[in-house]
């Protein structure tokens, strides 16, 4: 959750820009929830060196990307049919990425490798349909993808018994481009719900997962500031 609030500075930046926009401009603040999918990598993690390996004896397989995401973002619509926005989505939890068996020779029990994926975007927005009740949004832009890894393991052999350790291990950053489509439905004059589907292309994402392309589905709930005509 701390990483979600860190990205709140992005909507604040749009709010600062809003004062310089013309009277017809609108700004949307939104939070979202959904999921993203990517298949598991064809390579695994060596159980002794933690390097890459071909799945088999002594090589642990990795998991696919398929879990709950939270998001925060904002859009600044400078014109009735066009504007720009920014958002960030991340896994609030740390799902299991791989399991490494224990090594009694060095006094370590089983190790769990966990991961957390974050996407952030800077988008151009086009609204070919814009009515009082709903808008159709086509979005496209660029940003980044970050995968952080954590280790959770058990150490034995101490006079005090077994001890559990959990710590940050490493992270991988990638550039990404994406496009999406959403339908923004107004339940009141200011409050809206926007189901949205995105596809992302993340070069070299196969270092962590099975494809460079990632599909994501989000439901955004937000509030519009400005006079909707």
Protein model, in words:
- The longest helix has 10 residues, at 9-18.
- Helices cover 7% and strands 61% of the residues.
- A hairpin with a 5-residue loop joins strand 2 (44-46) and strand 3.
- With 229 residues, the chain is mainly beta.
- The protein starts with a helix and ends with a strand.
- It has a single domain (2-225), classed as Beta Barrel (Porin).
- An 8-stranded antiparallel beta barrel has the order 1-5-6-8-9-10-11-12. A 3-stranded antiparallel sheet has the order 3-2-4, with no helix packed on it.
- The chain is built from 2 helices and 12 strands; from the N terminus they run ααββββββββββββ.
- The protein is elongated and about 65 Å long.
- The chain has helices spanning 2-6, 9-18; strands spanning 26-38, 44-46, 52-53, 59-60, 65-77, 82-90, 96-100, 108-130, 134-155, 163-186, 191-201, 213-225.
Rg from Cα: 21 Å
CATH architecture: Beta Barrel
Amino- and carboxy-terminal Cα gap: 36 Å
Poorly predicted runs are 1-5, 17-21
Tell me the number of strands: 12
How much of the sequence is in beta strands? over 45%
- On the 0 to 100 scale, the average pLDDT is 87
């Amino acid at each position: 959750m701390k990483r979600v609030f860190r990205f709140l500075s992005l909507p604040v930046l749009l709010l600062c820009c809003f004062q310089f926009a013309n009277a017809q401009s609108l700004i949307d603040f939104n939070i979202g929830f959904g999921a993203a999918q990517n298949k598991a990598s064809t390579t695994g993690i060596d159980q002794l060196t933690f390097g890459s390996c071909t799945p088999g004896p002594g090589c642990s397989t990795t998991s696919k990307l398929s879990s709950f995401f939270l998001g925060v973002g904002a859009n600044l619509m400078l014109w009735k049919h066009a504007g720009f926005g920014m958002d960030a989505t991340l896994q609030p939890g740390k799902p299991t990425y791989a399991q490494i068996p224990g090594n009694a020779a060095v006094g370590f029990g089983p190790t769990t490798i966990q991961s957390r994926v974050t996407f952030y975007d800077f988008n151009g927005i086009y609204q070919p349909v814009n009515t009082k009740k709903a808008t159709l949004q086509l979005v496209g832009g660029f940003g980044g993808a970050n995968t952080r890894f954590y280790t959770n393991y058990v150490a034995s052999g101490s006079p005090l018994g077994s001890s559990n350790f959990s710590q940050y291990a490493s992270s991988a950053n990638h550039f990404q481009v994406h496009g999406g489509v959403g339908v923004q439905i107004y339940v009141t004059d200011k409050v809206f719900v926007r189901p949205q589907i995105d596809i992302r292309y993340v070069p070299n994402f196969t270092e962590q997962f099975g494809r460079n392309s990632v599909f994501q589905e989000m439901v955004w709930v937000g509030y519009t500031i400005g006079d909707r005509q």
